[in-house]
């Protein structure tokens, strides 16, 4: 996907049919000249995908994520390497040329970022971005080499033809969002769920200008939790709480506040919020939300309960797991089941029953691979939990390192080279190697990926700065370690309360490195 446009400040014009998955406030577009032609450049299209397209001219392909394109061929060529990219055995340099004919216009769903209007003022996106929705279908018209541009050109036509499995995917997505109170928030929620955080933030900030709904504050809070900007998340949840009166709505925000306090390790406050939510869910007799909130409480038992019992937690989790599995209505509660299985793995690991822990961790991991897109945060967490388990089982870390290397290779082959999940896996691999130089190289590469995102994942960036600072510290290059510790501290100040232990710890690292730097001069 292209980096998200930083200039989105207004509403999005959504071209849609009756079956469109996304709805938002929009203006009527100006008359269009058909056919419409959009471009998408890729410098690292996996050879396997390229071969499939070459062998299936006349066939159909569909997207399992938002597909970002541009009205400008020049912009697309930047992402295809600007004419400097080179093919390899694993990847091809490709320019997609996508045509939308007038006959298909009303049945193809896409977003024109440029045509956004608020108060009769237009704001143009610098990349002239066109965003096709998840599940868009294209017919492959031809694959040919363009020697002038030094790329493979894949010509496609947007179509309303579909696959049976795509119809099923669309049906499940509709079910997933059918209870959304405000249909205008669907687009932003969809963006959050698929990791398009910069676009989602721009969209929800626009919605606040149109309607200061507590649900917008909830979603902004969720967005900030995703990027670990916890202080901002708390502000948005507190604002939503002030505006709500409905018990179910209050319960949702109390759960979110509990998640915030859990993230910053204030477990007693997290427990208070979860208990308030549980009181509301019990009144509503909402068995699923009662179960999920109980899982949240179980996740912090060992941190704040004096009468903590591993056996009781396991029994409770197993009952909740059965309840979640028995929910046959769609969409299935895969994320909640993953959460429950990981908690079971964690509890069995605490009992040093590593075989049983691995069973549940692997079950969760398999669900992420089967039902969620590659690179999703749940999958990365599963990889980390399995790696941590293998470290406990194998003292020399070889099993953990082998597993991490395998997953890193899979993600590098199937995702863009600067996908954030690759940075997470590079950092995980760095934790497993013994050479300081190797660690440093991995952290530096991870940092370059983190910094090229159009949003900041605050905790990840801070942790990477800390790790690089540690590497310099071990190399006795104390002035550099101080520099990176301070970078981490500056980020942590934005996301933690002033008296948080993380700030104290990093400040101690800075003081120690500064002292060592003076002593060595």
UniProtKB/TrEMBL annotation:
SMART domains per the UniProt record, alphabetical: TPR (SM00028)
PROSITE patterns for the chain: TPR
Keywords carried by this UniProt record: Repeat, TPR repeat
TPR repeat residue numbers: 214-247, 251-284, 462-495
TM helices/strands, residue ranges: none
Domain of life of the source: Eukaryota
Entry-linked SUPFAM superfamilies: ADP-ribosylation, TPR-like
Signal peptide bounds: none
Pfam families in the cross-refs: TPR_12, TPR_8
Protein name: Tetratricopeptide repeat protein
